[in-house]
Design goal:
This protein has eight helices and six strands. The chain is α/β, with parallel strands linked by helices and about 250 residues long. It has a single domain, classed as Undecaprenyl pyrophosphate synthetase (3-Layer(aba) Sandwich). The protein has a six-stranded parallel sheet, sandwiched between helices. The radius of gyration is 20 Å and the shape is globular. The N and C termini lie close together (about 10 Å). The chain binds farnesyl diphosphate. The site of farnesyl diphosphate has 19 residues, from helix 1, helix 2 and helix 3.
Length: about 250
């Protein structure tokens, strides 16, 4: 009997679900003496590259923070620029993503966006709804606290009694109930915070922060994040089995 018998890795090498805060577009543009919108425009290109790279590596879900509930506080010009970018992105990239097997889902409060933006998101979801290679969820007018509150409201409206409201039951009302929780959370741009992204869903996500500004995010950066993730020891609040317990299990 050997105590050093290899055991199955605790973490599969490839995360099933990656969530990304795409930060740093404004600084990327400033460094080039360009308006912030220029950075967001290149941010869309980085996003399309990342969807492709994730799909190639077998990631099943990619969720990105494109516009937060708090982003309305930005200058009017930048907000309207981001809204018009939705229309440009859908018109430039929807066919390509659809033909590559990408399913698009939008998460967030659609009630406050314009009819045009809502129609673009509806089209993106409708055109890609049968695709299965990778699901790209775009969080738009989204906030983690908003999500928890809307889930509670919908649970109450559905008549769920207080004593029946478990974590699993409430989870059914969360905006991303269709996806497993993210395994890996990446934030670019050098800030080390979650910024009201998927608060409920990232309870046990592995966090990875990089100084890379989002428009520069590429396959090498993605691979570094995945390699760091693969080194983590995920215990989900439990304990790592002792070598003796592993050996006994292997011998059984
Ligand atoms: C944060 O960088 C980025 C955003 C608030 C917007 C992210 C949006 C995109 C990448 C475009 C995706 C758009 C669609 C339509 C899917 P920042 O502006 O806070 O940068 P800074 O920290 O350098 O100022």
């Amino acid at each position: 009997m050997s105590l050093f018998k290899p055991r199955a890795p605790v973490v599969p090498a490839i995360p099933r679900h990656i969530a990304v805060v795409m930060d740093g577009n404004g600084r990327w543009a400033n460094r080039r003496l360009m308006p912030r919108f220029f950075g967001h425009k290149h941010g869309v290109d980085a996003l399309v590259r990342t969807v492709q790279a994730c799909a190639d590596r077998g990631v099943e879900y990619l969720t990105v923070f494109a516009f937060s509930s708090e982003n309305w506080k930005r200058p009017e010009e930048e907000v309207s620029g981001l809204m018009s970018l939705v229309l440009v992105a859908v018109s430039n990239y929807l066919r390509k993503l659809a033909s590559e097997g990408v399913r698009i889902r939008i998460v967030g409060d659609r009630s406050k966006v314009s009819d045009k933006v809502r129609a673009a998101w509806d089209e993106a979801e409708a055109v890609t709804r049968h695709n299965t290679r990778i699901t790209l969820s775009v969080a738009f007018n989204y906030g983690g606290r908003w999500d928890i509150v809307q889930a509670c409201r919908r649970a109450i409206e559905a008549g769920v009694p207080a004593e029946a409201l478990t974590e699993a039951r409430l989870g059914e009302f969360m905006a991303m109930a269709y996806a497993p929780d993210p395994d890996l959370f990446i934030r670019t741009g050098g800030e080390v915070r979650i910024s009201n992204f998927l608060l409920w869903q990232t309870a046990y996500a592995e966090l990875h922060f990089t100084d890379c500004l989002w428009p520069d995010f590429d396959e090498a950066e993605l691979d570094r994040a995945i390699a760091a993730y693969a080194q983590r020891d995920r215990r989900f609040g439990g304990v790592k089995p002792s070598p003796a317990a592993v050996a006994a299990a292997n011998d059984a």
